[in-house]
Amino acid sequence: MSIKFNIQDTTESEIFYGSYVIYILGGHHIKTNPDFYVQIVNLETNEDIELREFYLKGRDFKCGKKAIKFYAFDINNYGKFKISVHNYNDIILKDSILEFFSFPFNIPNIVMSKVLGRSRRNRNLDDIEILIV
């Protein structure tokens, strides 16, 4: 089972018992403000699901897009859940992780990203998606 939606949307979905991972789709380099979070609420009990943030965020490809492994959570009981993303307006998501590395590695990466151009542009909010698998 997977759930995919735009970062600006709120969705309701049935989620079964198990462990899940939340990916942010659209790039391999992300910067968020400290107030950024994903909220998952059980509609029957009105309880929030506790999310665990990955401090070493893995990079991968999911659904044919670049993806960042961001949160993990467990569901103990089947139910219908409301999933929403909060404080996403100032998220910075870029194509390349090259900007992540520090000196002395960043000089060749900055030159290459200037030549290629793509990795330096921020993604629009319309292009950023959330994937739960």
TrEMBL record:
Superkingdom assignment: Bacteria
Identification of the protein by name: IPExxxVDY family protein
